[in-house]
Amino acid sequence: MTTSFDFTNPLVNGIHARPAAEIEIRAKRYSCQITLMNKTKGTQADAKSVLSLVGADVVMGDDCLLVFEGADEQAACEAIKSFIDRDFASCDEPLEVIEADVNQPLPVALVKAEPDLVRGTIVSPGIGRGRPVVCSKIDLHQLAIDVQLQSGSNVESVLAKALFTLCQQLEQEIVETESKSSHEEITILKAHLQIAGDSLFSESLVKFSTQGNPIHAIAKASDELKVPLLKSQSNYMRERALDIDDLCARLAGIVLGKPLQQPIVLSENSVVIADNLTPSEFLALDKQLLKGLVLAEAGQTSHTVILARSFGVPVLTAVEGVNAFAHGTDTLVVDASYGCLIREPNEKVDKFYLLEQRKQAAKTSILTPFATSQGQSKDGKRMALFANIAMGMEAGSAFGRGAEGIGLFRTEMLFMDQEQAPDEDEQFEVYREVIEAAAGKSVIIRTLDIGGDKPLPYLELPEEENPFLGYRAVRMYPQYQAMVETQLRALLKASRYGQVDIMIPMISCMEEVEWISQLCQQCQAQLQAEGTEVGQWRLGIMVEVPSARYLIEKVAGLIDFISIGSNDLTQYFMACDRGNRQVSSLYDSFHPGFIAFLRDIARAAKSAGLELGICGEMASDKRALPLLLAMGFDEISMSAPSIIPLRAELAKVDFDACGKLLDEVCAQGTADQVKACIEHFWQQQEKPEILSESLVIRCDANDKAGVIKQLTDNLEVQGRTEKADAVEQAIWEREAIFATSLGFGVAVPHCKSDAVSHNSISIAQLEKPIIWNEAEGEAVSAVIMLTISSRDEEGTHMSIFSKLARKLMHRDFREALMNPAASSGETIALLKGILYEQVA
């Protein structure tokens, strides 16, 4: 007898290692045989093997059947069906994909520089320059022929020992990486450890060990394990084959007693060219000298590409004939902004990239003051910007990116992927690291938020019909009180290095707050009785459950702060599972009812004298920024890269105007109406004058292309367009119709374009005259560029153009305009005197 159920795979990346591990963890709790059948493709897998599940090639939308056969099949079916129905969709997330058109036109200024180039596909953005370094690929089959191994050894035993060593190495690398490197690197190393420890991996090695050569066995096993991946319809799944290559190459190296390929040594700034690089090979490269990668086979979701993005290394792929193109070349430019590879750049190409660097530096410079400033509105209303982190080692980077504090340290990572909970000393060291990195800044550490939707194997938590509404977070603390006390003691011990804010998740009733407050006091008393110093600490709660709103005034004497978890609070308020595609459209934090509820919570917190914060997606959403400021939030917490740009946006808004916006959106009927109000608000905040001193540049260009590029680049720097190259293209399209030199040494290039955010008049004060109209040999000494948004319906474009043309007939105006001693302010005043009343 068998039991089964059907489901359609909801995961955009398919069932790869991470979601497969979630199925495997649950399947291994039961003795019955559990088989996953991919009905769409006719494949099947052992649900207790990550590799087998991955090999079933289950992509998004595939129809699947899980079959249970054995003594406990009914219990297994019910538990895993509950997981698939309610939680499976949220156990993975889409990977970052670079939206780049492989046929996008190159910037006009670059085309006119006549570079020697080939096109490629952007998979990691940026621009790099260096000497080409070409890498060869390891062929395990050829290696099996070439190497002479000592006879007499039992091949199966040799492979088992090598596999054990490989797993040990990966475990050690994970431990070392957790203290010094990126989240992406740790995630990939853990995925590799899952594959190396999978029964299917070892079984495949044993299968081919009878042929007498361990290297041959590894090569054959690699081929067999990659077959279902390479046949997949999913790019993501096909790219996982490289992880098999990586592990098998490492395993062969262990058998031989040395790495198969010495690490690539870079002695100068370099561009590495390869069919592909394994994650291990990439991590071995000197990142200070690695300026770019050109890979033949890598895709958007390759683990190597994910690592490259985390290190800021530009990567191109699908570059036709790259080896021949790079042969004999001293210098390559990897342009992963516009998708091209350039060899031996000429002087004009060098000038183009110098201007690109200048543009990026100017954009960074504008944001630089916001890297160290405090978050506040234009009229001085304070709201701090904190960072979310998941591991202790992220704290230093977060503060380096402008965080004013840590608003959410998710401690679950300390407890996951281990055979038992971390002890007090292990936790203490991590918390101390974060507190010391904060150097007096606020640190909010959330206690363990675990439960049915985020299981810990060693806790053996029961499967639940609805884990999101079930036995999780603070609700399970009494049963696991010893583990909770260990965490609280570690936090309190760490408080002697700086104040610790302890935040309790999933609070829904008064009794929970009273119980956890008493437990904190007990832990403090125990530590002090043991002679351990305890510093300053505060207690707070997460408001994720709507009922918590009505506890705020009652628990104010027991807590010091609250932090709203906007993701969970939204889904509970709207009674919809955000991972359920059938109702996910209801999940919208900009529903006017939810915003009004949020305002109500904020008012209660302020009335009770509690510090108020928010984390979750809403905290980093620019649209929510004026609403949160108006509600009186003391801090908002987000991923570190969002902090500086959002602080710059906060400085643009007026507190009173935000209050009016809040009243307006709460009176709306739909989320779309709310968003329309917010969009109009930002348009009003960001409506710069058409004439500004920031649009006057001293231009060192020696040709027309350089002038137009510098002017359009400045528009991007000043936030008047998001794509300078699109405005540049629009200007040149107008120039193709007729040259815009109006005589008397002045040119007025102009366009009306969707790429223009704000109407602008830009002025280039040239260091020397340049040829503008090549057909006539006409030179200009001053350039006035007019860029108008396509949304402008007031005739601004032609009105200004005609007024300028008429005024240029007057010698005194031209002389004043071209006066090299004139300041930016004087130039703007000159133009305003003629145009202001008509343009305003």
UniProtKB/TrEMBL annotation:
EC number from the UniProt entry: 2.7.3.9
Taxonomic superkingdom: Bacteria
The protein's name: Phosphoenolpyruvate--protein phosphotransferase
PANTHER family reported in the protein's UniProt record: MULTIPHOSPHORYL TRANSFER PROTEIN 1-RELATED, PHOSPHOENOLPYRUVATE-PROTEIN PHOSPHOTRANSFERASE
Q: Which family does this protein fall into?
A: Belongs to the PEP-utilizing enzyme family.
Record's CDD domains? PTS-HPr_like, PTS_IIA_fru
Q: MF terms per GO, please?
A: phosphoenolpyruvate-protein phosphotransferase activity
Which keywords, in A-to-Z order, does the entry hold? Coiled coil, Cytoplasm, Kinase, Magnesium, Metal-binding, Phosphoprotein, Phosphotransferase system, Sugar transport, Transferase, Transport
Keyword Kinase carried by entry: yes
Annotated compartments: Cytoplasm
Q: What is the lineage of its organism?
A: Bacteria, Pseudomonadati, Pseudomonadota, Gammaproteobacteria, Vibrionales
Please state every residue range assigned to the domain named HPr: 1-94
Q: Which reaction does it catalyse?
A: L-histidyl-[protein] + phosphoenolpyruvate = N(pros)-phospho-L-histidyl-[protein] + pyruvate; D-fructose(out) + N(pros)-phospho-L-histidyl-[protein] = D-fructose 1-phosphate(in) + L-histidyl-[protein]
List the coiled-coil residues.
160-187
- The PTS EIIA type-2 domain, residue ranges: 688-834
Cofactor(s) for this UniProt protein: Mg(2+)
Organism whose genome encodes this protein: Photobacterium rosenbergii
